[in-house]
Amino acid sequence: MAYAPHTLDDRDAMLAAIGVGSVDELFADIPDSVRARAFDIPPPLTEQEVRRELTRLAGRNRIPEVSFLGAGAYRHLVPAAVMEVIGRSEFATAYTPYQPEVSQGTLQSIYEFQTLVCELTGMEVASASHYDGATATAEAALMACRLTRRDTVAISSAVNPQVRRVLDTYCSGPGIRVIEVEADIAEGGSGLTPIDAAESSLDEHVACLVVQHPNFFGGIEPMAELAATAHRHGAQFVAVVEPTSLAILEAPGAYGADIVAAEGQPLGIPLSFGGPYVGLMAARMDSVRQMPGRLVGATRDAAGRRGYVLTLQAREQHIRREKAASNICTNQALCALAATAYLSAVGPEGLREVAELSMVQTRHAISTLEAAGVGERRFSASYFAEAAVRIPDAKRRHAALAEQGVLAGFPLEDAYPALRDCLLVAATELTTDDDVARLVEALEATP
Amino acid sequence: MSVTERPAAPAGAPSDGDASGRGAAFSSAVGGEELRVVQPLIFASSRPGRRDVRFPKPSDAAQAAAASQLELPAEALRTAAARLPEVSELDLLRHFNRLSHLNHAIDLGFYPLGSCTMKYNPKVNEWAARLPGLSESHPLDPPELSQGSLEIQWLLAELLREISGMAAVSLQPAAGAQGELTGLLMARAYHRSRGEGEQRTTVLVPDSSHGTNPATATMVGYRTITIPSNERGGIDLAALREALGSDTAALMITNPSTLGMFEDQIDQVVAAVHEVGAIAYMDGANLNAILGRFRAGDAGFDVMHFNLHKTFSTPHGGGGPGAGPVGVSERLAPFLPEPVPVLVEGSPDEVKRNAWAGRTTPGARFALEAEGTREQSIGKVRAFAGNFGMHLRAYTYIRSNGDAGLREVSDDAVLAANYLRVRLTDAYDLPYDRICKHEVVFSGRRQKREHGVTTLDIAKAILDYQIHPPTIYFPLIVEEALMIEPTETESLETLDRFVAVMHEIAERAARDPAALRAAPTTTPVGRLDEASAARRPDLRHDFGTA
Questions:
Q1: Hey, which CATH number is domain B138-400, 3.40.190.10, 3.40.640.10, 3.10.180.10, 3.50.50.60?
Q2: Which of A14, A102, A125 to mutate: most B Cβ within 10 Å?
Q3: Which residue is closest to A59 within chain B, CA to CA?
Q4: Which of A55, A77, B214, B371 gives a 20 to 30 Å CA spacing to A1?
Q5: Which ipTM value was assigned to this complex?
């Protein structure tokens, strides 16, 4: 073992204390018939050898020089201070805070995280975090079913397809029906979730209406009207949001969201090929007992010192077992810590700058594409920092550009056959004017 | 809260009345009531206009171009700003560094938390995770740009297949509990594919199981039936056979069990499950005990999950992120969640041979299996392709250890647990007195009965020795349980010190039980009032009206 501390003498001393002659005797309880028949693993590597191997593999990836790819995971600045905080082994090598007296660092950071999520979303209570935005959304839908005792979930087709597929899987568990509200993606359409389509999908069986905002196409949904529509039918309104947008866009709590879910990756978490990320979930206080996942609360010790503990655990699997609100065991504490440190590092002004720059550079890119006659916006509605752009022969040209280290966006055709020749184009604060110029030049040079 | 000054010295902390050394406490009056604060919230050091990270201004050209596009509708704009902290970078670092000092962690001291495998987390894994080629890889990058990420996932899946003997592996689940969900959804899909979906409605779990097992069964719409353990700590085979029937969907069994015992009738257990056409699920939480000794696939299991954060040393992170890949037998492979990383061009054996030698195979090409290829897939359980950052750490760990190293991991983990078993039996009751695997479960019932000192008191007393207590009150079938998992990375000196501490606590329990009931006394805070935390939930900072 690469990290074994025992000397030969240590091992002998331990075996002698146990009263066995060899370690093999400690495995005598494994029946012969089921002993491992093979274990064909390559030999050990030293640190320099394993570093060479990982360097080889990292070198097999090509990080594009210019990228307008988003579609649910975004290239943002990860401040050095944030990496420093989450790299501290007092945070990284601790486990879930079962012993609060020696876990106040983790617990307080989660309390701060819950506060920040409440502030961003305008909601009353936030969980300690979930695996990612998709599972947070799925769990939010199941939570709405428990709250309303209904068995159907209505979800806009303008919610990220990855999120919808995860929600489908989670709902298939207890047999919850999922119905899709068709977004208006017809030629000349808004790209938004139509109020009348939402209205007609709702009835006394529907537990919630799930809408993403900005939606998968970056579109600004009429959230207040959609929320009111859901409420008219006694359904919960589940808002799936993007956290940096909340510096500019109205807080979900203000437009009537009952449950909010979000992918927290944009808040200082590296792309890392899809994970680990962090799911945010927030709700109204009167729903807290149906909320899945960990919650941290403040309390005090006998001497009156303020401290933090895991609380309302009667919802959770280790207490309730088959009656728990979810099987979720822990949270994504270290990623939640990254988000907490990120929001503290950028502050309200910084988060607004990120959102505004992302908006400006997305608009800059799209208006430059339009001016050059290379592409045109596919939908009529206003958008945040991502938009569907029609580019003739998009899929082939997207692939050709990728070869040159320019990622023009995300091809929408596979997920939305009606959006053939459309790319989802996203910019962030890291996008430069040169990136925009390179994108347009590359498309012009690749007819 | 308006605390701005740190007391000059612990002894001078104005209202920190005890001599515990918890001197870092602050004092402040909130709502007329005195409250002592160990480290103020980040919001306390916030001042309007204070900044850390700044971003560039957009160019005039960019702004002009943007201006020609649609503005945001006025009704969509935020009306009340989020009260995020406004702090300097130095204050930010000090805040989080001070918070970090309030944690116990593996890198600070012994952490024998049973069932959690708190082993050393090698730093080369962290180095690898921060390689820009990996950390900046976008999950939707075309496969031509992400061959490295895909090769890591494919190789890791191959290694996990070999370690478990299972036919196929999905890396997608983000945690052990999600691996369980994935496994049971596949079991159900399998039964449905055979027209037995309606008939099979129950999942059997032993009474020693993790709470996630029955909670997962509920999420998949199954009814849980609990099977008692026998006097040896194994599953009661007669009771199992009694409960098994044509309505059984699956048995979920942790092996080695949460009692730290290898299920020595495992062959009969699996056979009995298969006899009624049910799925045999192995919860791999305790895989750290049996690497190279037992493979679930060889024993006939249909599905198992791995906890990369336990067996394969990825950091626990204060409660996540983890990763919970699942391995399945041939008959469940069609139901795996999407997407599966696949080698689309090249020979698997050649690619592995080369990778083991640190070489790239010319012409080899990896991809994520296209959506819809696996027609019977249960779907997606998580966005994208799983917690890749954990996958690459686990890959690094497995390669560092290699075949001999992984065997030694389990040998040493089992050696350490048995060493503690024999060294502590004189002081604490051992309900199942036989060779254990990676962990050993004692009972504090003697201390409770004779001295009124509970297992909770013992755990809190351990904190004062800068050691994290074992898992307590679990498994549920052991009265006053103390579940100790030392792991393979702790030296004999550390184990011996723990033995000395546990003996001293047993002795103090007899001599001065009141002192143990008052423990801990050296931690940043004392025992916290959990009842009032639940009665009057305070789950977020109250900014007040200021």
A1: 3.40.640.10
A2: A102
A3: B133
A4: A55
A5: 0.97
Measured between CA atoms, how close is B87 to chain A, in angstroms?
7
Instruction: Determine the Cα–Cα distance for residues A365 and A438; give it in Å rounded to an integer.
Output: 10
Q: Is B542 on the interface with A (CB under 8 A)?
A: no
Residue by residue, DSSP assigns A87-142 as: H-HHHHT--S-SSGGGBHHHHHHHHHHHHHHHHHHT-SEE-S-BS-HHHHHHHHHH
CATH of domain B413-532: 3.90.1150.10
Domain limits, chain B: 1-51+88-102, 138-400, 413-532
Q: Give the pair of three-digit tokens for residue A123.
A: 């909601």
Q: Tell me the chain B residues in contact with residue A267 when contact means C-beta distances shorter than 8 Å.
A: none
| Inter-residue contact B66 to A364 (CB < 8 Å) | yes
Chain B CB contacts of A266 under 8 Å are: none
- B137 to A61: CB separation less than 8 angstroms, yes or no: yes
In 3D space, the residue among A141, A111, A145 whose CA is nearest the CA of residue A128 turns out to be A111
The DSSP secondary-structure symbol of B478 reads S
Q: Is the CB of A104 less than 8 angstroms away from the CB of B398?
A: no
Determine contact, residues A91/A295, Cβ cutoff 8 Å.
no
> At CB < 8 A and 24+ separation, what contacts does B221-226 make?
B221/A173, B221/A174, B221/A175, B221/B188, B222/B184, B222/B188, B222/B249, B222/B250, B223/A322, B224/A321, B224/A322
- CB of B535 less than 8 A from some CB of A: no
8 Å CB contact of A309 and B528 = yes
Q: Give the whole-angstrom CA distance, residue A237 versus residue A233.
A: 10
Question: Please, which residues bridge with residue B87 across strands?
Answer: none
How crowded is residue B6: how many other Cβ atoms within 10 Å of its Cβ? 13
Q: Where are the beta strands (DSSP E) in A127-205?
A: 152-156, 177-181
Secondary-structure percent of chain A, ordered helix, strand, coil, rounded to 5: 45, 15, 40
Q: How is B332-343 classified by DSSP, letter by letter?
A: GGGGPPSPPEEE
pLDDT tens-digit profile, chain A (447 residues): 679 999 999 999 999 999 999 999 999 999 999 999 889 999 999 999 999 999 999 999 999 999 999 999 999 999 999 999 999 999 999 998 999 999 999 999 999 999 999 999 999 999 999 999 999 999 999 999 999 999 999 999 999 999 999 999 999 999 999 999 999 999 999 999 999 999 999 999 999 999 999 999 999 999 999 999 999 999 999 999 999 999 999 999 999 999 999 999 999 999 999 999 999 999 999 999 999 999 999 999 999 999 999 999 888 888 788 888 788 877 899 999 999 999 999 999 999 999 999 999 999 999 999 999 999 999 999 999 999 999 999 999 999 999 999 999 999 999 999 999 999 999 999 999 999 999 999 999 999
Residues from chain B that touch A84, judged by Cβ atoms under 8 A, are 93
Indicate the CATH number for domain A66-77+347-445: 3.90.1150.10
**Residue A373 touches chain B, beta carbons under 8 Å:** no
Domain boundaries, given as residue ranges, for chain A: 8-58, 66-77+347-445, 80-341
Q: Which of residues 184-203 of A touch B (CB under 8 A)?
A: none
Q: Which residues of B touch A23 (CB under 8 A)?
A: 411, 414-415
Same fold, A66-77+347-445 and A80-341: no
Cβ neighbours of B426 in A, within 8 Å: none
CATH code assigned to A80-341: 3.40.640.10
Q: Residue written as tokens 């171009």?
A: B65
